[in-house]
Amino acid sequence: MCIRDRYITDDGFALGLAYFLKILGLNNKFDSLHWFEEVHSKLSSERKELKKNLEGIAKGKNSIEDLDMGNQISLRRIEMLATEFETFNYCFNGARILFREE
Fold this sequence. Notes:
Elements: H1 12-24, H2 27-32, H3 35-58, H4 65-98
Helix pairs in contact: 1-4, 3-4
């Protein structure tokens, strides 16, 4: 059984946020923030920077073992944040469908 491909999420926050945005009529203003796109962009740029640092360490420019380990831990943290954020994005968009008017 592969546990890495399974994610547990508490969609109560996503559901509550979608509900309040609908009640207050702020869906369009929230969409105008492009919050999900900005967070994705920020995480991608951090990931690229860390990978670049790791490649520099691998080429021998910086042979400090602690720096390599720190960068690897930071890269794993960013990847976990990206996965968690993506899961939240799916839950939030699913919750918004519940409150959509047709």
